[in-house]
Design goal:
- The protein contains 16 helices and 14 strands.
């Protein structure tokens, strides 16, 4: 029978877990809307310090506490969509949010387990093995069960950090890798003082970190794309329709008239409305209303992009973006759907649970994975809908042909939370990876123009009825990320894992 640990030991363990959870929570300040990009480097270095000298089980528990603190603070806005707008009872919404964040926390927990379990030299663990393992797990989180890549560490460096310069080459996960390598090297430099050759290794790791950040800075100065023809005038419409009123039948006419007025106020060649701006099926929209919009656009040699649910005769329906105006009518149908919001996975098992949610249109069909850019206003426009832009490898499917990226969203589901600002930062990363302008039209915010360097050129205040107008150059050219996708990052991670395993010696240190 195992002896009961003394109370002092239990107290120290509890304090360690509380500290890990606090480090995770502080890490969120590195992301939008705070943009304190140096903080995640520090918190990760301190997390690694906690992992040193612990058992694999203990390291996993510490990693789980860190992840739980990070995701509860960073994505707890899921509760808002479930309870405030989805009408899920508060206790159930709290439970679902906790379970979701606990699932996400399993990835840092597994990172901690692997860190402690493998018998590698301390600096190799910290600066090579762990960064590669964590990054691969973060990438796995981005596609497993359709994927949830929110709060990938690389986003914390976008757009201001020198490491953001790595985005056009290795994508956001490559930035994650560089961030973790920096944190691992700092942990080694600050806390590892044992063993022969430590001083010389510390110098090497200091130089390596300096080189990584210099490389990011230099890559940030590179011009990865060039203008394709004359600039085009663009208007992004933010209707600011409250989510709790959006789908009410008595509000539809008001919504349609509001968007008609915003469209008629614009003289731009490309006018973009948000996701599901028209809160009814396309075949239910009055034909004379659509004709009026199209004729108005044609008079100005313009095109309009509008989000609207589209129902086929077969009964299938899509989350569609439709063009009206000078060019022939074209469509983009959303391909990457939101689980439980736009489709129900394992419906026989989970359908009864989800039935408590007051979410309209839960059975969207998937659009084709490979769709061509829309030919509008003299540009090739790659459209994506809502959180599709969280998946970099999916965005580049329409590149390098596309000259502009357009994201239409309705994040009113998350109320006055930090979700819209986080989503804008994700769009900034996509602009960096592709070296294209990203044009974001949203219902309540953040509606913004993001340039090819990931910088916000112009934005509308949240929760206001607004129009953002700007002259935008289409861009051409292909970044390495557009050509390789995540393969470059995966190859780099494989190389680091191999180097850490081959470089171990018998004098293992923690």
């Amino acid at each position: 029978m195992a002896a009961t640990p003394p109370p002092a030991t239990e107290s120290r363990r509890g304090a360690t877990l509380a500290a890990a959870a606090a480090l995770g929570a502080i890490t969120v300040l590195g992301f939008a809307p705070f943009y304190l990009f140096a903080l995640p480097v520090v918190t990760l270095a301190l997390l690694m310090r906690q992992w040193r000298g612990t058992s694999p089980y203990r390291a996993a528990v510490i990693g789980f506490a860190f992840g739980l603190g990070m995701f509860l603070c960073g994505v707890s806005w899921v509760y808002v969509s479930l309870h405030d707008f989805g009408a899920m009872p508060a206790p159930l919404a709290v439970g679902v949010t906790l379970l979701f964040c606990a699932y996400l926390a399993l990835f840092p927990a597994l990172s901690g387990y692997l860190f402690s379990a493998l018998p590698l030299r301390g600096d190799l663990k910290l600066a090579l093995f762990l960064p590669a393992a964590w990054t691969l797990l973060e990438w796995t989180r981005g596609w497993l069960f359709t994927g949830f890549p929110w709060l990938a560490l690389g986003y914390s460096q976008v757009p201001a950090s020198p490491l953001a310069g790595l985005a056009p080459v290795f994508g956001v996960y490559g930035i994650s890798l560089a961030t973790l390598m920096t944190a691992g090297a700092i942990c080694h430099l600050a806390f590892d003082s044992n063993g022969a050759g430590t001083a010389s290794r510390k110098w090497r790791w200091a130089i390596a970190v300096f080189a990584i950040w210099c490389a990011g800075y230099l890559l940030k100065q590179a011009e990865w794309s060039r203008p394709a023809g004359a600039a085009v005038s663009v208007s992004l419409l933010q209707g600011n329709v409250p989510q709790d009123l959006k789908w009410r039948a008595d509000r539809i006419r008001t919504t349609l008239e509001s968007y008609r007025a915003l469209i008629e106020s614009s003289r731009s060649r490309l006018i973009i409305l948000p996701e599901t701006a028209f809160p009814l099926f396309l075949d239910d929209v009055p034909p004379e209303y659509l004709r009026g919009l199209a004729e108005r656009a044609k008079k100005n040699n313009a095109d309009i992009l509008v989000g609207v649910p589209e129902r086929l005769r077969s009964g299938e329906y899509y989350n569609t973006v439709l063009s009206l105006g000078t060019a022939a009518t074209q469509r983009y149908r959303k391909s990457h759907l939101v689980p439980f919001g736009e489709f129900i996975p394992l419906r026989p098992l989970l359908g009864p649970i989800v039935s408590v949610l007051a979410i309209p249109l839960q059975d969207f069909s998937r659009g084709a994975a490979m769709q061509q850019p829309l030919d509008l206003a003299g540009q090739k426009v790659a459209v994506n809908v809502c959180y599709e832009d969280a998946f970099g490898e999916e965005i580049i499917r329409q590149l390098p042909d596309a000259t502009l990226l357009v994201n239409v969203s309705n994040v009113a589901w998350f109320g006055h939370s930090i979700a819209p600002q986080q989503h804008l930062q994700i769009s900034q990363a996509r602009a960096l990876e592709s070296a294209r302008y990203m044009l974001r039209a949203t219902n309540t915010g953040e509606t913004a123009v993001v340039n090819q360097r990931g910088e916000i050129v112009k934005a509308a205040p949240e929760f206001t009825r607004a129009v953002v107008t700007e002259d935008i150059p289409g861009m051409q050219g292909a970044t390495p990320y557009v050509r390789w996708g995540n393969y470059g990052m995966l190859a780099l991670c494989a190389a680091l894992l191999a180097a850490s395993l081959l470089g171990r010696d018998r004098r293992l240190q923690n």
